[in-house]
Amino acid sequence: MPRAGVDLVAVLDASGGMQGGKLERMKEAMMVVVDKLRAEDRLSIVSFNSYENQLTMLTYMTEHGRDVARLKINKLVAGGQGDITAALREGAEILCWREAESTRRVGCIVFLSDCKNSEISETEIRPEFPVHTFGLGTDHNPTMMKYIADITSGTYSFVNQDIGMIREALTVFITGLTSVAAMSIKITLRANKDIIISSIESGGYVNHVENNKFGTIDMDNIYASEQKDFIVYLRVAEGKKELITIGGRYLSHDTVKHLTYTDVELQQPYHECLPDDLAIQPEVAAELVRIKLEKGISSMLEKGPSSVGLQQLWEKIMDTDEARGTPAETLLGISMEVAEMKRDIENPKEYRKTGLPYTLSWLTSRKMQRATIKGTPSNSDALQTTG
Q1: Is the pLDDT of residue 276 over 70?
Q2: Whole-structure pTM over 0.85, yes or no?
Q3: HEC string of 71-121?
């Protein structure tokens, strides 16, 4: 099936901290990336230790291109100190230098590192292209890896205990990246008479509301089988049934396509019912629960993680109409995620290796509604369509 070509820059940590097993496992994992990319895809490799080093330009992954990439990866040797910001800037510049046709190709950076840096200035990171960060080993800095992902609209994944799982983690990542179904997506909303668009919840995707009557949501791309859920808040005049009209456009296989306009109407019961008989649509309820949890956790982390605080937050959310309207199976899944976030939370040294990276990875997954790896590939958010 035709799909958008991929331009991927792999920024690989070859500093002294990667000596031994980490570097060898990273090399093995990168071979999966090389093998998964098709001839129409391009890969550039940037390594860094005492200085950044562009090993290859963007190169089509033909048989010859794959051979060159494998050779460069296998020659990596760990040593020295790494300049992360210089390497990431180099990666962004490689993507910026592309020709005009780059607007019809998926461009992003994958960053593999046991990053221990505690400070990186926002002005040092170019935000034009998403950086998908992978923290390797229990000694990486999860806060910094999430920070890089956040300011570039990327995601943060980690592999801590079994460093050999890097290969499987990158397999999950590259499988999604090479399945992009649409690019340059714009969803449009038009409110009908006496209807006001108050706000839009779209996570990490830019939205805009104009004159409370028109709204837009922009997405760079969407993977095959991904589902994105957005919440639109409306003020509806009494007696109004016709709410909004949804449309949009996207780029698919070099062709601009338009979404069929869809009218959204208020469905009223055929007979009178008591307020207690009314219920939120289950999928909407579930998304509202996740939004409440995401905002609550983000606020909690600013003050410092607390097992009591997280438990109180979850109990408060559970005692809402949204939680009562969420399917039991979905609610159980979210509850299990909360339990993972609480792991070792009262032991700061261990929490930094377990609960904290899980929580930060979960937050980037929620923000972009895209799968991340949280320790093992089996522990990822698939966020797939249901039909």
Answers
A1: no
A2: yes
A3: HHHHCCCCCCCCCHHHHHHHHHHHHHCCCHHHHHCEEEEEEEECCCCCCCC
